[in-house]
Amino acid sequence: MNAQKSFVLLICIGLVIGALIKYCVIDVLHVSGRSMSPALEDGDTLIVNKLAYGLNIPYGGRLLFQWAAPQEDDIVIYLYNNKIVVKRCVACAGTPLEYSTNPLYTLHVGDKHIPLTEQQYLALHTCQAVPDGYILAIGDNYAESVDSRTYGFVHVHNMLGKVVSRKAAKQ
After folding, report:
1. Which residues have C-beta within 8 Å of that of residue 24, sequence separation ≥ 6?
2. pTM (2 decimals)?
3. Would you write out the chain's pLDDT as a tens digit for each of its 171 residues?
4. If residue 9 lies in a helix (H) or strand (E), which one and from where to where?
5. CA distance 44 to 101
6. Number of helices and strands (H, E) in the chain?
């Protein structure tokens, strides 16, 4: 009877530790969609470091403690409309933003030229730089990505983690 109680206790401790690791330290996610193509394809498996930017509140979609901020070209995850989203950090706080309307609506960030719709241009063109505490998060597949061009800058406290590894889906 004593050995049985010890075994059950050991299993319970293991489950608690496993849950803490999954929700606070590292997670495995699967890509659904083509917004990050060609860097990430539909069905790819991602390893996410949930401690890259700070300690997350499980299911809260926010950082409890923050010790780092996303850097340009990081592939980050965050919540948008209660869904986990994966995008590339194209610009960090203070990065200058330039816009063009000739011949098409375009956002210029460093050497990147990101196409915009007229609505996206009208929503963003008054911002000359990424605001403090925010990033510009955009999918690599501009044509199919719903991202900061549509819903605005993403607060760094909303970062859930950084993608550190990818395993391609079997074709």
Report:
1. 50, 51, 55, 56, 58
2. 0.88
3. 688 888 889 999 999 988 888 878 899 999 999 999 999 999 999 999 999 999 887 767 677 888 999 999 999 999 898 899 999 999 999 999 999 998 899 999 999 999 999 999 999 999 999 999 999 999 999 999 999 999 999 999 899 999 999 998 876
4. helix 2-20
5. 36
6. 3, 12
